[in-house]
Design a protein that fits this description.
Chain A: It is found in: Membrane. The complex is a heterodimer of chains A (350) and B (1203). By secondary structure, chain A is of the alpha+beta class. Chain A is built from eleven helices and eleven strands. In chain A, helix 3 packs antiparallel against helix 10.
Chain lengths: 350, 1203
């Protein structure tokens, strides 16, 4: 192999000058683009880059994890499962009959506050094993009808909760029909704790998706009645419980905002909840929980992100060390033929 | 007009025409019957009679579509693809209630993809359309019925029109030749576009027409009727009759001028249009070239089927689970239902628990639609776009542009780009491919003295062969860089002869006769450049041209050929002045492959009759007279030397003819020529044979078939890349072997396994002429020889890996070796050899060998050739490369890629091929990766909706994923990525083996990428779900709904998929930066714009980014975490692989990165350790010679310093 012979075919790459090209010439125009010689960054994973990358990732992730964990730990959360407890002992073998039966289903719950909760304290109900994301369920609504009174007859996607005696239901569909209707009243030391139910829904929903002049019509008039009823005199955009409910949950276990308590709850406080247990989760073995929670900048109490960051940060640091050791101990085997799979099989003559 | 008249010649003596009186043959009785119904009314195209016939016009359409048929036809083409058909079905299903998403999500991407494909089709077709327009608007002179020929567009020609075609114009349709500028109304036609042959053919009109029609005005009252065969594709026959002046004459192909051939050396011809447009023979002949698909694409189809399997399996599982869960909802006693909020007691069939099996079946279809994201809808169109752009790069590569002929490389199909990176065997034609097909007069032997000092390439390489170790690099460079001689066809250097010095030679008289013979004995036609007065020649073969040129350069300038004479200028020996001489040309005894000689009979100025003859040595030596063998011994010696040097030799001899003898000969000869009996040819042969005897030897000529520039170097590189090179040639064995040596395919210490049938036994049988016995014996002989060869190879195995074999087989033996029973054996033998040369092979055999290699080894084959005889081979091979050289366009027209020179193959394969292979395979892997990532997240989410087929993402997100957020980076990868730069592709040719062994598109790699996709999807889904689950996710106490989880997951997918791309590519130009980061940025921009549109359109994505996602820190933290986490495994894998198990291209990246590319020892280490012994090429040759001398390492070091 001679240098000149090699370069005589390669070397032209730089010297291709379009000098003296006739107009009719088919000579391709020279440009770095067409000759695929664009300046380029050609990174390769050198030890320095690999170790550095892992180090940086580790160094960034571990503090992030700590911060997240702190935020999560700073949140005070009280969870009270009441679905079974709120059914009288006598009816517990047939909870469905109880919940579907008539009569008052008042239930008293007592909640101990172990740690001071700064206001606002958010009240949630949590349902489990409830498939709000089921396709039949998600589709069973009509957004146009919710927005504008002119569209009230547009119920085509709402079957089977679309009409009552030929009259369109507003709001139609399974989602609205199955509106959650347990209610909670809170009191501390026999003193009523006001629940603020304003501003629990997304602003965009309230303003743009639920009409100010759309009023419930024929709602829950047909049999059987699903969930909660609506005040026919309040426009949909003011029915924030409905708006929250209608924004369907992603997963079968979900929480929905019920309201806010605008006072601090002190450590040691005993909260009494006067609870109306109306909603049927018994037929599908769903759990019902009442949740009180404060928030941090990160949201609610969820250690997952913090732990995940910490773990992965540590793994990255570990990998950085491992690679450093590997690179030191085991020098590179550049060009070892045994690594070339095709060479092994194709040795010899061919 | 008169001027033209003067030029009229009677050239009929020059060619042994069939008798001018054509006869009615059997075929003519069919006229008027079925298949022979065409009637052409000449000169009255608009008469009622011809209008009734209503023949098609002369408009020719080569486009695939017309404006009307474009939409339906191209749509049909698109939906023939399984994947597209699947998307069509899902698209239609999406209009029904079964659909999990709005129809737009299915139809928009489909529409986009189909539109893109159709636009591409349309643009390609528009290119053809433009060609059509150009072609159809060419002008020709057409008789307007009033004595004037007007210029008219081709497309307006009608059957029956009279046209006048001028010199060097193409014939616009199939014409009946009526008369020409020559008195005997012959004309010369170049049929290069039809059959690729460059020599001129002669056509001649009937006497009846030529005698009546001479000038434009003669056509005024012309009335003639042609009855002939219907349009057909046979180029070599034509049957018809002409009714003209109450006379009925038979017409043959001799009177038919075919469209797309060119009028040469004739001022003008008149013709009547017989076939127009699509009825013409050339268009009837044009068939679509076989469409070839690359190996990668075929494998890709398998992957698609695999994905279909996965989709159906998942749908099936999902449907079963869905069926079971739906069934659970059925009405229990007491009218209660489980999930009452779904109202299962009042459900349509899709969700009806009472009919759960039916619901499950419907769900299956829904799921198939939902999982359609596993199949990359844009894969085909992306690959097509990428390939077209790759072809643009190939076409624009300045290093594959050949200045001399002004020809850049031209990828005629873009289908096979990546196949170029996987070539295992190259099957090459020799003449015109390895060699220039330009003959150079380089030596001669006159009167037993050898003249000519030029060194041929073969001699140069032979010199190297003989003194092995003293290989000097400069020699090789001369081979590469040497510029061609100043005069085409002439490379003769010898002071004893040039510049008139020959007169001083002892044998000046013989020399004079020798050169005179060169100047007279040929069929070339001189063309005088009026401006410079120089003469150039139009000859049937390049050999012949080189003779005339040589004679001219040595002072015997042939300058004019008249109807019965040859004129040339020469130096008068006595006066020392240049004189003009005219030899009367009496007869031309033509060359053919049986006679292997060509003679002319002339009368010189002294009235002496001379027979001048030139021919192959074996036929000429036996024809010498007793007293003509004076120089025989010496000449034979020289001829053998010349043949050894790879030169073509011809023996020149003459004799004086007795007047009486000639008269008799002339009589017999003319009689024989005019006879119509079947044994006419034999008769002529006999007569000429008698004449060409008792010759007096003058000497021999040696003409070099020049190797193209850079061929040895290119072959060496290809050999180093591990590509096997076979030469398939029609030449004789000796020449082929010589060329083999010249381009280093053969070398001294190679063991040659020669298979031929030149054994005495077979020859004896051939003499006896028993056909069956010959066949039997030949077959046995070939098989025996093959067995011996195999044994030889077997014996050497293990002994030394450096021993190499070469197989040389001739055409006759090949016939037997290619028989079904033995072809396996032949292939085994051939693949065991480093070089294979098949000589004397026919075009069909070339194609058969190609097919054998292709199907027998299952590897990619590439055929390269330049002539019409290579067409079969080019079409048969996986890739056909046409050399756009001198032998016409036939090979190019049937090739997949055309290049101008053999040496560009190196760049085409090692650089473009490697890149394209690397790009396309990475691209496909990545495509499936990203779609699996996307699809699995959809699947996982569905599992959490009790398999109710609820998609995780907004409809528009679904539909735009493949189109906007992930398509451009992958196209950029396919177009621009370079694992190593061109320079390193050359420096480490073995890199090419990555493609040959298909390492980058192995199932291991494909499955690896797919599993990476599955992992990515699992990570994205579960991490997002855990981090956002039922918790309040922002400081305002809001919880994450479906749209928030979906939006977050989608953001993660877009980020991860694009970052993965950034990790996978090794070449970042501004393009990559723009498309990768642009795609991510575009996602956010899209989210904002889409979210800002009224909720009736954006539905649950309304303000989702501005209101819900962006203000929440947990969204950003989750995205960051997920994207880093999912990339860690790949990053670790790549780091470890790069450092400890680098692939070959990665090693080269290391070398480049560490700046060792100029450190010879380092490079040598990489090369030596990874290169397997190369067995052909001059590197191998040098290595072998160095091995012999035992200075292996030292020498290698020296060589690599040269890098």
């Amino acid at each position: 192999m001679s240098s000149i012979a090699a370069s005589s075919t390669i070397g032209g790459s730089g010297s291709a000058e379009p000098s003296g090209v006739k107009k009719t010439s088919k000579r391709p125009k020279y440009s770095k683009f067409t000759q695929q010689e664009l300046p380029a960054c050609k990174p390769i994973l050198t030890p320095r880059w690999v170790i550095l990358t892992f180090l940086v990732a580790g160094v960034v992730f571990i503090p992030l994890g700590v911060i997240c964990l702190f935020a999560s730990q700073g949140v005070v959360e009280i969870v009270d499962r009441y679905d079974t407890d709120c059914v009288p002992e006598t009816s517990r073998n047939n909870k469905v009959a109880y919940i579907q039966g008539a009569g008052d289903k008042i239930c008293n719950r007592t909640i101990m506050v172990n740690k001071t909760m700064k206001h606002p304290v958010y009240i949630y109900y949590q349902l489990e094993n409830f498939y709000q994301n089921h396709r039949r369920y998600v589709k069973s609504r009509n957004d146009a009808q919710l927005r504008s009174p002119r569209e009230e007859h547009d119920v085509k996607t709402c079957a089977p909760e679309d009409n009552v005696d030929g009259q369109p239901i507003v709001p139609c569909g399974l989602v609205a029909w199955s509106l959650f209707n347990d209610t909670y009243r809170f009191s501390r030391n026999n003193q009523q704790l006001p629940v603020n139910k304003k501003g629990i829904s997304w602003k965009s929903d309230k303003e743009n998706k639920f009409g100010k002049n759309v009023f419930p019509k024929h709602f829950q008039k047909g049999a059987p009645i699903g969930g909660g009823a609506l005040d026919p005199n309040k426009s949909l955009s003011e029915q924030e419980d409905l708006i929250v409910w209608m924004r369907t949950a992603a997963l079968p276990t979900f929480r929905k905002l019920y309201g806010k308590i605008e006072t601090d709850l002190k450590s040691g406080d005993t909260i009494t909840v006067l609870l109306e247990n109306n909603y049927n989760t018994y037929s599908f073995n769903g759990e019902k929980k009442l949740v009180l929670s404060t928030t941090s900048w990160l949201g609610g109490r969820n250690d997952f992100l913090g732990i995940a960051y910490l773990t992965v940060g540590s793994i990255c640091l570990f990998l950085a060390v491992t690679f450093a050791v590997l690179y030191l101990v085991k020098p590179r085997q550049l060009g070892d033929p045994s690594y070339l799979s095709w060479n092994r099989s194709a040795g010899g003559l061919q | 007009m008169g001027k033209c008249r003067r030029k009229r010649l009677h050239l009929r003596n020059l060619y042994a025409f069939k008798g001018r009186k054509s006869t009615f043959q059997e075929d003519h009785s069919h006229i008027g019957g079925p298949g022979f119904s065409r009637v052409v009314y000449c000169n009255e195209p608009n008469s009622p009679a011809s209008e009734r016939r209503n023949y098609a016009g002369n408009y020719v359409r080569s486009t695939k579509y017309t404006p009307a048929s474009f939409i339906p036809k191209s749509l049909f083409e698109q939906f023939r693809r399984v994947a597209n058909f699947y998307f069509l079905v899902t698209g239609i299903l999406s209009l029904t209630a079964l659909s999990p998403y709005s129809p737009i999500s299915a139809l928009l991407p489909l529409g986009f993809v189909i539109t893109a494909s159709m636009v591409k089709e349309g643009i390609e077709d528009w290119g053809r359309k433009k060609q059509d327009i150009e072609m159809n608007n060419r002008k020709v002179k057409v008789y307007d019925g009033n004595g004037i020929f007007r210029r008219e567009e081709w497309r307006n020609l009608k059957v029956g029109d009279i046209v006048r075609v001028e010199k060097d114009e193409f014939f616009p349709a199939d014409l009946l030749l009526l008369s020409s500028s020559y008195e005997d109304s012959i004309c010369y036609v170049e049929t290069m576009n039809l059959d690729g042959e460059t020599n001129l053919k002669v056509k001649q009109s009937l006497e009846v027409t030529s005698s009546a029609l001479h000038e434009d005005s003669d056509f005024k009252d012309l009335k003639a009727v042609v009855r002939c065969e219907d349009p057909n594709a046979d180029l070599y026959t034509f049957v018809g009759t002409l009714d003209f002046e109450q006379q009925k004459s038979p017409l043959s192909i001799q009177q038919l001028l075919l469209r797309d051939s060119k009028l040469r050396n004739t001022e003008y011809v008149y013709g009547a249009v017989v076939f127009t447009g699509h009825d013409t023979k050339v268009i009837q002949n044009s068939t679509d070239p076989p469409s070839k698909r690359s190996r990668i694409e075929r494998k890709m189809d398998k992957i698609i089927y695999l994905m279909f399997g996965v989709v159906f399996l998942m749908s099936f599982i999902g449907s079963i689970v869905f069926g079971i869960e739906t069934r659970e909802d059925r009405v229990r006693n007491g009218g209660r239902t489980e999930r009452w909020y779904l109202k299962p007691d009042d459900a349509e069939i899709l969700f009806d628990p009472e009919r759960a099996p039916m619901a499950a079946i419907y769900h299956f279809f829904t799921a198939v639609m939902l999982y359609s994201y596993f199949i990359p809808i844009s894969l085909y169109v992306s690959i097509e776009i990428v390939k077209v752009l790759q072809s643009v790069f190939i076409n624009n590569d300045i290093l594959m542009y050949y200045e001399e002929t002004d020809k850049p490389a031209h990828a005629r199909t873009s289908n096979l780009n990546e196949e170029l990176g996987m070539v295992d065997t190259i099957l090459s034609d020799k003449t015109g491919t390895l060699t220039c097909n330009s003959m150079e007069f380089i030596k001669c032997s006159v009167a037993g003295t050898a003249y000519g000092r030029g060194i041929t390439e073969v001699e140069r390489s032979m010199a190297m062969r003989s003194n092995g170790t003293s290989l000097v690099d400069d020699d090789l460079d001369v081979v590469v860089d040497r510029s061609g001689p100043k005069i085409k066809g002439f490379n003769f250097v010898d002071e004893r002869v040039i510049k008139g010095n020959w007169v001083k030679q002892r044998d000046a008289v013989v020399l004079q006769k020798f050169f005179r013979l060169l100047a007279v004995c040929h069929t070339a036609i001189p063309e005088i450049n009026e401006a410079t007065g120089t003469v150039s020649y139009e000859a049937e073969s390049p050999d012949e041209a080189s003779f005339v040129v040589a004679a001219r350069e040595l002072g015997f300038e042939f300058f004019s050929r008249t109807q019965n004479g040859v004129s040339f200028r020469e130096l008068d020996l006595t006066s020392g002045k240049t004189v003009e001489r005219v030899y009367r040309l009496l007869n031309v005894l033509e060359f053919n492959s049986a006679r292997k000689r060509m003679s002319v009979i002339v009368r010189d100025e002294d009235g002496k009759l001379l027979l001048l003859s030139k021919g192959a040595d074996n036929v000429m030596f036996e024809r010498l007279a007793k007293n003509g063998r004076k120089f025989e011994e010496k000449t034979r010696e020289h001829v053998n030397e010349y043949a050894d040097a790879g030169l073509r030799t011809l023996i020149l001899a003459y004799r004086e003819v007795d007047e009486n003898e000639y008269i008799e000969f002339s009589k017999n000869f003319n009689e024989a020529k005019n006879s119509v009996t079947a044994d006419r040819e034999i008769l002529i042969d006999e007569i000429t044979d008698k004449m060409e005897r008792d010759l007096i030897l003058l000497g021999a000529t040696a003409v070099e078939d020049k190797l193209q520039n850079g061929v040895p170097d290119c072959i060496d590189k290809l050999a180093q890349a591990g590509i096997k090179i076979w030469v398939l040639t029609g030449d004789k064995m000796e020449t082929a072997i010589n060329i083999g040596f010249a381009c280093s395919l053969l070398r001294q210490e190679m063991k040659q396994i020669v298979i031929n049938l030149e054994t005495p036994h077979i020859k004896a049988l051939e003499k006896a002429g028993e056909k069956h016995a010959i066949e039997q014996a030949s077959r046995e002989s070939v098989v025996k020889q093959m067995e011996e060869g195999k044994a030889l190879i077997k014996g050497s195995k293990g002994a030394s890996s450096h021993e190499a074999f070469a197989l040389i087989i001739d055409g006759k033996s090949l016939t037997y070796a290619l028989e079904d029973d033995f072809k396996k054996m032949f292939l085994d033998l051939a693949t065991g050899c480093a070089s294979v040369i098949c000589c004397r092979s026919s075009p069909k055999q070339k194609a058969l060998v190609t097919r054998l290699v292709k199907t027998g080894t299952g590897k990619t084959t590439l055929a390269i050739g330049d002539g019409a005889n290579d067409v079969g081979m080019l079409q048969e091979a996986d890739i056909g490369i046409g050399i756009s050289g001198v032998e016409g366009m036939q090979a190019v027209m049937s090739s997949d890629i055309a290049i101008a020179q053999f040496r560009y193959l190196e760049r085409l394969l090692l650089v473009h091929g490697h890149w394209c292979y690397n790009r396309i395979s990475s691209m496909i892997c990545y495509f499936f990766y990203k779609n699996i990532t996307f699809g699995v997240t959809v699947f996982l989410y569905e599992a959490y909706t009790s398999f109710s087929a609820q998609p995780a993402y907004n409809d528009w997100f679904l539909s735009l994923f493949n189109v906007f957020f992930s398509s451009l980076p992958v196209i950029a990868l396919g177009v621009f990525d370079q694992d190593v730069s061109a320079r390193y592709c050359y420096k480490f040719p073995l890199l090419y083996q990555e493609g040959v062994q298909n390492l980058l598109f192995s199932w291991k790699r494909i499955i690896g990428w797919m599993l990476n996709g599955v992992f990515t999807a699992l990570a994205i889904f579960f991490l997002c779900k855990e981090s956002l689950k039922h918790q309040l996710y922002n400081p305002n106490g809001k919880t994450a709904g479906r749209e928030i989880l979906g939006g977050t997951m989608y953001t993660c997918v877009v980020w991860v998929v694009n970052l993965q791309m950034a990790l996978a590519i090794s070449y970042f130009t501004w393009v990559q930066h723009i498309v990768i980061w642009g795609s991510v940025a575009f996602w956010y921009i899209f989210l904002m714009i889409y979210g800002a549109i009224a909720p009736s359109f954006s539905t649950d994505a309304y303000k989702v980014f501005t209101e819900a996602l962006a203000p929440a820190l947990s969204y950003w933290l989750t995205t960051l975490f997920v994207m880093i986490f999912t990339l860690i495994p790949f990053f670790v894998f790549k780091s470890v692989q790069m450092r400890f198990f680098p692939g070959y291209h990665q090693m080269i990246q290391w070398i480049r990165y560490e700046g060792h590319s100029n450190d010879p020892e380092f490079v040598e280490m990489v090369r030596q350790r990874s290169i397997r012994p190369t067995t052909v090429g001059f590197t191998a040759r040098r290595a072998a010679s160095v091995r012999r001398s035992g200075r292996f390492h030292e020498q290698l070091k020296k060589n690599f310093i040269a890098f």
